[in-house]
Design a protein that fits this description.
3 helices, immunoglobulin domain, 4-stranded antiparallel β-sheet, Ig-like domain-containing protein, 21 strands, alpha+beta, Immunoglobulin-like, rod-shaped, 320 residues, 25% helix, transmembrane helix
């Protein structure tokens, strides 16, 4: 794909130039133009305005030549409607032409293909007739070349709520250097000292890549976006908004911590419950043993008392 696939032209700097020449030539001015894609020929427009006393057919019958120049160099020369490349600048050969009906319509617009940055020039149109020593200037057109930037891509590093986060906005393949805008929460523009923007010229194409970095403190509800503005094309491309949420890494860590804490609490509760049950059982067994021992002691005392009474009775009977 050639560089011209992305190039456009703008004629915002062109200005009207009214010239009244010898009555058989008429007046000329530059027509208004629009920004156009470079998929086809680009027209550096220059339209002829006929005097009301003359007809277009009369101009067509005049043996004239039309020249488009860069300073004194010839960009395109047409003699009686036929192109002439003998005096043409080499870099413009096979890239220029005039409308086939230029003499009939008075439209002397230069059609230029495969536009590059080097074509960003001021072009002059001249008309000459046989027998005249000098050419007559018709119009001057300032051609402005521009290229569309790619849609900006917004990237970010790991986001930690409440901490300074780095956002990077990147766009490529445009011309001229763009303006970069940052938006926080859709309307708020960050301080200039928090933004660093760098444009890099691509040597082979003459186009620019642009990278802009934003450092900003964010919260969980923050949205961040960037926009690339091509002032010459009056075109602004905006990235998708990035809604800041809790970091996946932080979220996973928090989830793991929650699971660990819950498990630990359950384990502690089970251990405490087991200890309580064990203690209750121990107390119950101890009291039970104490009660059994008390019963045994009481039974032993009863037996001893009965034996003592039996001995006493036996002694009494013997004495008698």
């Amino acid at each position: 794909m050639s560089n011209s696939d992305h190039l456009c032209f703008s004629t915002q700097c062109r200005y009207p130039l009214y010239l009244t020449t010898r009555g058989d030539i008429g007046s000329y001015l530059i027509s208004e133009g629009d920004v156009s894609d470079m998929d086809q020929w680009t027209a550096v427009e220059c339209n002829h305005l006929l005097h009301i006393t003359r007809e277009a057919e009369e101009l067509a019958s005049v043996d004239i030549s039309i020249e488009w120049r860069l300073g004194s160099d010839v960009v395109h020369r047409s003699e009686s409607g036929e192109g002439n490349e003998r005096t043409q600048i080499m870099s413009y050969r096979n890239r220029t032409q005039l409308p086939e009906d230029a003499l009939q319509t008075g439209d002397f617009s230069l059609q230029l293909s495969d536009v590059t940055r080097e074509d960003d020039q001021s072009y002059d149109c001249y008309i000459s007739r046989p027998g005249l020593e000098s050419s007559t200037p018709v119009c001057t057109v300032c051609l402005r070349v521009a290229a569309h930037f790619s849609s900006p891509v917004l990237l970010n590093e790991e986001v930690r709520e409440g901490e300074e986060t780095r956002f990077t906005c990147h766009s490529s393949g445009g011309f001229p250097e763009p303006a970069v805008h940052w938006f926080v929460d859709q309307t708020e523009q960050p301080a200039l000292d928090s933004v660093h923007t760098q444009s890099t010229l691509i040597p082979d194409s003459g186009l620019y890549n642009v990278t802009s970095v934003l450092l900003v403190n964010v919260t969980q509800d923050t949205t961040v976006s960037c926009a690339i503005e091509n002032l010459l094309l009056n075109e602004t491309l905006e990235s998708l908004s990035y809604g800041v949420e809790a970091s996946p890494v932080v979220g996973r860590a928090s989830q793991a911590m929650w699971i660990f804490s819950t498990t630990l609490c359950v384990l502690v509760a089970v251990l405490v419950a087991s200890a309580v049950v064990y203690q209750i059982k121990e107390d119950y067994d101890r009291k039970r043993n104490q009660n059994l021992q008390q019963v045994v002691l009481e039974e032993d005392e009863t037996k001893h008392s009965m034996l003592d009474m039996e001995r006493l009775d036996s002694l009494t009977e013997t004495n008698v």
